[in-house]
Each structure stands twice: as C-alpha cells, then as structure tokens.
User: Fold Lipoprotein from Formosa undariae.
Amino acid sequence: MKQIIRITFSLVFLVSCNNSTKNKGEREFIPNPEKYALDEYLEINDSLKYKFTPDTLIGQLSLNNTQNVNEYLGKDVMKKLIDDSLPYSSVTSKDGEQRLTFYFHPGNIVNTFSEFKVSYNNKKDRVEEVTSDRAFKTESGIELGMTEGDILAIKGKPQNRVNNETTVFHYKIENMENSEFLKTYNMPVYYADYEFNNGYLIEFRFGFEYP
Assistant:
C-alpha cells in the first residue's frame, strides 16, 4: 500500500526518466514539482495516509549509539569536532557530492551523536573523511533529490510548513509521557526538518533537540 501511495505521488510530479541525464539521482528534474503536492496529499483518504515515523539511522550510524562510529567516521572522531554552539564534524559521500554532518551533545557518552544533517557539498576544499556510501540515506529511504510528494508519502503531513526562499517541512515528537519512542531514548524532543528548493530535497536534519 505504501508503494502504491508513493507511485501515485511520483506520477503527479515526475516525467519519464532520461537514462542520459546527469542530474542527481538519475532523475530528470522538472521545475516546481511541488505544485499541488500538499493539496493532492490532503485529498487522499485518511486511512491511507502514513503517520510520521522517526528515522534514527543514517548510513551506518544510529542516533545516540557508538556502534560503527570508528569504522564509518574514522578514528579519534571526537578530536575532530568543531566547537560551536553544538560540537560537530562531517564526512562526505564517496563521490564528494554529499556531506553528512553529525552533532555531539555536551554531557553525552563519547562517540554518541544526537543529530544528523545531510546536504549537498558546496565546499569541496574542506578536508574530510570520505565514506563508502554514494548517498546518505535513512532507514525509511529519505535521501537528497526527493520531491515534496515523496516526503509526504513517507512521512505524512508536517506539523509546520514554512515557505520563504525555500520550503521546509517540520516534524516533531514531544510529550515524553505519551511517547514510547522518547521514553526508549530518554530524550524529551525529537525533530526532523526537510528543506526543498523548487520542490526537491536539498537538505534534511533530524535527531534530538539539545536540552
């Protein structure tokens, strides 16, 4: 059923694939595929709409989990963190086109990261660890280059939709008392933001808000 919904959205926003295209994701990009995306979603019967399910994995990493950190991010990753409002560092995809940024919450266990951000790599002069992944993808299949319709089909309607120069879908899980997910991680708030330009996903970020 989920596949049927995704196909429905894809038919609304995409034209046929062009094997020779050089665009990201081997998909022929068309201008403004977001047109009518939210309206089309709202017209779907509620019983067929998917409710928001949080992602916790990106590549080989998991939120607040030390497993695979050294293998995926390189040894001594904590020494590479840039001390900003939240300490962070980043790695790139195999072809250098995408960047995965990971954030450390002060007070956490070493090598546990509570927020992840994926974006296109616009600063290729930076020296970073290179992963074996061509693209950074979550366990629900979220990756750069998807359309607004794709995200709606996977994540459901966002709690907030902000339209400025770009469009951002914002999802949040709070109220720890009623959330088994938050209780499992012992964290008060989880969020996910998906940013689109001309209808295509150019950046996404998810994880736990710093207290």
In short: Residues 2-52+142-208 form one domain. Residues 7-26 have pLDDT under 50 and may be disordered.
